[in-house]
Design brief:
alpha/beta; binds pyridoxal-5'-phosphate; 36% helix; 17 strands; seven-stranded mixed sheet; four-stranded mixed sheet
């Protein structure tokens, strides 16, 4: 082969990808080159409306001036210094997180570099809540908390865990019902982990009143309530965090995806007494809290606040729900989620096909399971992007429906509720 660093990517990059990347990754359909706002372009110059946003990561969309300015100005000062030194962006971001989470003065922040790392820190926090033989950790069936050993042990999808067993012990997965919650929590439970909306499972909402009940029962038994806001947090639901919609405060919250608009970062924020559990030297991270990631996160959170993107997430979420229910397609069975985290429940297991057809219509969406399409667009989307989504999604649905005209049984052809 005669490749050099200046050779453009070959037409056969799909083959190359499969040869150089670990087999754990599926070969992507597109190779992307650049983006602007809610749009991206592939290496062949085709334009796509990005309504997945790097899976709820690109809060400000692509190439946002605030993101660029924060990256370049901080990179010109300090990128990394290790935890032997403090930086202003790190401390200021911690202050900001304590404010927007509601943890306040008695809260504390730990920085890592990903969602999984935030949940690993939370898992260790749970282990430290161990007085009088508290060894049980509860998590929900079908939940997703990450791919590292601890976060995977918390994940309620057996097929993800099984090849890597044995898991770190102590985790039990319970049904997502108020009855199962009440039955499972006792004085031997160290912590309950819960996502306000199960994003990876297919944007599955919790039963009404679940978080309030979880707050009450965990407090009664001295267990920590740890809310995984890695997908739902940072304004996506129209509040800073999903638990705020339920009007509760947890003992700890994990944050990552949208926090720095695409620059890797994760955080564990503790509330009240949970802030006293970690002792000096019990946890750390070489890259965690580095000035680059924390400066960018500070700028992204500042822009979300300045531009009122929580309101925008609410408003655009409502508009998208209106469009989806208005389509009146027999394929669209229900619309789940809150704000700009939306799950479109399909009446047939054709989600992969639909997302492939949508891609051909210039629309990036994804299929977290067979019968769900997930939308997690940038929080900056406006009238133009919402309308364009409507046009492209409608076109994709029409094409797929035409292909499947004979295979959709009539009894499932109910309009969306
Ligand atoms: C994405 C996600 C994680 C894992 O985050 P990574 O950054 O991929 O490690 C954990 N929990 C939830 C709810 C997520 O959506």
């Amino acid at each position: 082969m005669t490749t050099s660093s200046t050779t453009p990517v070959a037409q056969d990059w799909h083959d190359t990808f499969g040869h150089v990347m670990m087999g754990s990754l599926a070969t992507p359909q597109l190779m992307l080159d650049h983006g602007r706002g809610a749009y991206v372009w592939d290496v062949d110059g085709n334009e796509y409306l990005d309504f997945l946003g790097g899976i709820a990561v690109n809060s400000l969309g692509h190439a946002h001036p605030v993101l660029l300015e924060a990256i370049t100005s901080q990179a010109a000062k300090l990128v990394h210094i290790s935890n032997y030194f403090a930086s202003r962006p790190e401390v200021e971001l911690a202050q900001r997180l304590l404010r927007i989470t509601g943890a306040g003065e008695s809260g504390r922040v730990f920085f890592g570099n990903s969602g999984a790392e935030a949940n690993e820190a939370a898992f260790k926090l749970a282990r430290l809540n161990n007085a009088n033989g508290r060894t049980r950790i509860l998590a929900l069936k079908n939940s997703f908390h990450g791919r590292t050993m601890g976060s995977m042990a918390l994940t309620g999808k057996p097929h993800m865990r099984e090849p890597f067993e044995p898991m770190p012990p102590g985790v039990e997965h319970i049904d997502s019902t108020l009855e199962a919650l009440e039955a499972a929590v006792d004085d031997r439970v160290a912590a309950l982990f819960v996502e306000p909306i199960k994003g990876e499972a297919g944007v599955i909402d919790l039963p009404a009143g679940y978080l309030a009940a979880a707050r009450e029962v965990t407090a009664r038994h001295g267990a920590l309530l740890i809310v995984d806001e890695i997908q739902t947090g940072v304004g996506r639901t129209g509040e800073w965090f999903g638990y705020q919609l339920a009007g509760i405060l947890p003992d700890a919250v994990t944050v990552a995806k949208g926090m720095a608009g695409g620059v890797p970062i994760g955080a564990l924020v503790t509330f009240g007494a949970a802030s006293e559990l970690f002792a000096r030297g019990q946890h750390g991270s070489t890259f965690g809290g580095n000035p680059l990631a924390t400066a960018v996160a500070g700028a992204v959170l500042g822009e979300i606040e300045r531009a009122d993107l929580l309101d925008n997430a609410r408003l655009r979420g409502e508009q998208l729900r209106g469009i989806l229910t208005g389509i009146g397609s027999p394929l669209v069975r229900e619309v789940r989620g809150t704000g700009l985290l939306i799950g479109i429940g399909l009446s047939e297991p054709v989600a992969d096909e639909l997302s492939a057809v949508a891609l051909r219509h210039g629309l990036i969406i994804n299929a977290p399971n067979d019968s769900t399409i997930r939308l997690a667009p940038p929080l900056i989307v406006g009238d133009e992007e919402v309308a364009e989504f409507g046009r492209r999604f409608r076109a994709a649905l029409a094409e797929l429906t035409a292909q499947h005209a004979t295979s959709i049984p009539t009894e499932t052809q109910g309009a969306v509720s």
